[in-house]
Amino acid sequence: MKRLKNLASLLTRPRPPVGTTPADVVHRENKWRLLRYRPAPGQAPKLQTPVLLVPSLINRHYVMDLLPGKSMAQDLVAAGHDVYCIDWGTPGDEDRFVDFDEICDRYLGRAIRHVARTSPRNKTHVLGYCLGGTLATIHAAARPEHVASLFLLAAPVSFTDEGALAAWTRSPQFNVGSIVQGFGNVPWQLMQSAFHMLRPTLTAAKAVGVIDRAANDEFLDGFLALETWGNDNVAFPGECYRQYIEQLYRGDALMQGTFALSGIPARLESISCPVTSVVFEHDNIVPWQSAAALIDRVSSKDKTLLKLPGGHVGAVVSKAAQKNLWPKMSAFWAERDDAAPKPKLAPTPAPSAPRAKRPARAAKPSRPKSKASATG
């Protein structure tokens, strides 16, 4: 009976509150802003190195703060982390010429430096999800100074896989120049339809799942929150999209070692900080091999590949993720929360034998001042 009642009221059911963990805007520029989540009253971060969450450029940031009681950001703050998150905002028509360097180097760089300044080490842990993880990886490869570690969730770095997205973008019929010239910013509807093509039966599968579990209010709230996020997408700045497709998807520049960020080589071998790459076995958007390729290329001695069951989104925000993945993330950062290095003091010199006293020198006769110096 409850299942039928919930199904009948599904269209009028109040949408659950999303992205509600209290946060302060600590930096704002163009369309993007940097959020700092507030701890509960009377609490303070226990760990010294902050954490910066970098979501995908084309999705809303609140996937990392989905629901009260089911929020990655909320759980990390409760675990004692000082948590920041980038909200990329919504690009306007005037942003069609914002390029990859502007976003990955200058926008992301300023966010990293702002967060790092709050740490005794002047560094921050960086978590990147999907395209946000690709941006974080490239930035760390070119400018590693303020990156304490990388924790990546389904972040593609190799683009030679046989997935549908890679095949589509490599097709001669996919004219990225004409798309950008015609649209300016690439519409989210175009990208959304491409994702739907990857799994045409997804809508039907969702409907079956809702019917089966409609009596579970917690499930319905989570489902509606995720649907709210999934349909709240943003456009891709045109010039950045063109470079993304041409250099990464078609040129596989990261794996080839030819990618540069603002003219600085961004080679994966330059990454030496601790790295964990999490891949998902049933991810149809980022094939797990595309993300796993990073681990063999970085120079880090502290590196881990973690392969989990699940898909691109569900495995990151599900109840199972809250019980297993999020605590692993917290433990990874807590174990690497090094204190600020203490300055090295010069060793105290050993006492030496007293030197023999030299005879006092006779005072030199003073010279008469020249006329010029005497008169000033």
pLDDT averaged residue by residue: 86
CATH architecture descriptor: 3-Layer(aba) Sandwich
Low-confidence stretches: 339-376
Within CATH, the superfamily carries the name Alpha/Beta hydrolase fold, catalytic domain
Strand percentage:
5-15%
Number of domains: 1
Looking at the structure, the CATH topology is Rossmann fold
Level-1 CATH class name: Alpha Beta
Structural description of this entry:
- This protein has 376 residues and is α/β, with parallel strands linked by helices.
- It has one domain: Alpha/Beta hydrolase fold, catalytic domain (Rossmann fold, 3-Layer(aba) Sandwich).
- The chain is 39% helix and 14% strand.
- Strands 1-2-4-3-5-6-9-10 form an eight-stranded mixed β-sheet, with helices on both faces. The chain has a two-stranded antiparallel sheet with strand order 7-8.
- β5, α4 and β6 form a beta-alpha-beta unit.
- α3 packs across α4.
- The radius of gyration is 28 Å and the shape is globular.
- The N and C termini lie far apart (108 Å).
- The C terminus is likely disordered.
